[in-house]
């Protein structure tokens, strides 16, 4: 998963980003609305965490604008405002959830998981293709009934492929989806992760096909 964190408090932003990366996700950080707009125009995100009080404006204007542009990326608002009317107003603008500051990081993580599960739908909590199953909740790969342990990046890469069977991903697209702008990563790293996944999938009915000069695609025999 790739997150966009919009928060001007650097200490809080660092703490949130560290927890997100600990789970193997990538995160870009914007300290103001202008930077956030540039990020969403340049990349795709699975979830946006949005502070309200920002140096160059009110986060609600960003929320309103994104929904007006039909950007349906889930957005969780981080707010110090506890009035019911404020929370209702943000939900009416299109927020998927809100967390009141100060908050426990474990609660924020749970809210993120809940929003992502709702967006994916119950049918997507476990994806099965042939003899390969992937639990998006537990982050587990099972092949012919045997659970395979994967590293975080491998899990996130497999999740991308399993959710878009038959879709072709270029190396640059995979770099963009798996890493943040601050990561100094070359496209060669993708070859390494794809190679690791292929070893795990060897002998199953699922394989990652290389389309020379184009990218990679998850295919299924049968």
Considering the chains and any ligands shown, give keywords for the structure.
single chain; 222 residues; alpha/beta; Rossmann fold; Arc Repressor Mutant, subunit A; five-stranded parallel β-sheet; four-stranded antiparallel β-sheet; elongated
Architecture (CATH level 2) name of the largest domain: 3-Layer(aba) Sandwich
The CATH topology of the largest domain corresponds to Rossmann fold
Number of domains: 2
Q: What value does the average pLDDT take?
A: 90
Biggest sheet architecture: 5 strands, parallel
> Helical stretch count?
8
Order of helices and strands: EHEHEEEHEHEHEEEEHEHHEE
CA-based shape: elongated
Quaternary state reads single chain
Write the layout of secondary structure elements.
Blueprint lengths: L1 E5 L3 H13 L3 E5 L2 H10 L4 E5 L1 E2 L2 E2 H10 L6 E5 L4 H10 L3 E4 L4 H16 L5 E4 L2 E4 L4 E4 L2 E3 L3 H12 L4 E2 L1 H8 L9 H14 L4 E6 L3 E6 L2
Parallel strand pairs: 1-2, 1-3, 3-6, 6-7
Antiparallel strand pairs: 4-5, 8-9, 9-10, 10-11, 12-14, 13-14
